[in-house]
Amino acid sequence: MSIDVARARAETPGTAHVVHLNNAGSALPPQPVTEAVFAHLALEEEIGGYEAAARNAGGVERTYAAVARLLGCGTDEVALVESATVAWALAFQTLEFQPGDRILTGTAEYASNVIAFLQAARRSGAEIEVIPDDADGQTDVMALDAMIDGRVKLIALTHIPTNGGLVNPAASVGGIARMHGIPYLLDACQAAGQMPLDVNELGCDFLTATGRKFLRGPRGTGFLYVRRERLEGMEPRVLDLHGATLAGPDRYEPRPDARRFEYWESNVAARIGLGVAVDYALDWGLEAIRERVWSLGGWLRTLLDAVPGVTLRDLGAERCGIVTFTLDGVDPDAVKAAVGAKGFNVSVSRASSTRFDMDARGLAAVVRASPHYYNTEAELELFAEAVAALAP
Ligand SMILES: Cc1ncc(COP(=O)(O)O)c(C=O)c1O
Fold it and tell me: Which residues does the UniProt record annotate as the domain Aminotransferase class V (predicted)?
């Protein structure tokens, strides 16, 4: 089934105001999401925060069910948190490393994850090793296989990086992780809402994502998936009275499910909105979304490739909806500002966000244009014209 773009736009008020090509940053939310958030805030105003949460408890439960449907997992394997970074850090911090342990990661790994590896390495003496890329610029699965030994204690991969069209072979990596029983932490922040995700096909033990990007949820939302078999004995660094019960004066018991990674206080309206966003994406269908987003990405590459002075910067055999490029003689920030003045929202992805990859390619920054299914081919054509007009 293909996407009804006219309906998608009618349900996305922002499309009347901007050409939003910053969905890898934070997408335009659809009306049902903002309505759900506003409605809960109005109820809080009317009857009080705790009382509103009690009345809308079903709305929050629905979010766990929606995320579980999105990922093909159980509701007991989902924790709702504030962002992809929080989800990722909560999972990573439960892992213990000894001197000489190896953490394997990809060249496209997100900077916050790498900072956490460096902290862990400094504290524990673990070593960080970057899996080489294959000729297409994606994680080389054969090279990974050859790197495995008894000292590998974690494989951590970014599925789709923040800085380009690359789609890493996350399921093949998962196959290797599972074969060797090595914990596998998948950063699916840019993949969630852009393509189908199934944790059993991916073979990951932990998956992290955010609400505001391709899922079109509220800001300040994210989720963590933890495989049931891994939950046993896994304790977050900090537990509160929501994640655990104080069973006696000197004894606590963590919750049996993934909600042990949550804390008591939360933005209930945003959590409800996240569930609506996930269900909204599921209603369109993740296959249909992928088809449209990736085909818009391909069309934008074709258009930009024809602009004199533009160099496309995307890697990978299969490319997603995130399009990155540079324009000869024009700083990426100047490109962003100039097209922004004409109503096009894009962003700039810097080396500091994906250091291994950008340094290896000698790139300081790239312009990032990331369409969603509600964008039109005509918008992309106007955008390419706006970029062409900037060429010195
Ligand atoms: C690949 C990747 N991982 C993680 C993050 C962090 O997400 P959040 O800002 O929701 O913590 C981003 C954000 O751009 C990202 O692109």
Answer: 20-383
